[in-house]
Amino acid sequence: MRPWMMNFVPERETFTSVPIWVRLYTLPLDYWQMESLSAIGNKLGRFVKISKATKKGKYTSFARIRVEMDLSVALPDEVILEVLDEDWVQTVD
Length: 93
Hints:
By secondary structure, this protein is α+β, with helices and mostly antiparallel strands. It has two helices and five strands. The protein is 17% helix and 38% strand.
């Protein structure tokens, strides 16, 4: 057992954030790059990473990113992005 785990008791710990996977359906192709997905993740919380399947283009109906979310704030249903000088409302699942 790792030394830091010896004193870990889940019942006594409080978590303020948790990493979650977020799916972004109908995301415009201009936003499938690392920089764009990272920016979207940071609008939701703190961007952590892109799923391997998204990197490889395995799914074309959604992009999947991991975001560390503050537990005191509800996950938004959408984020607003700017695509070709117009606002794009991106749903979040």
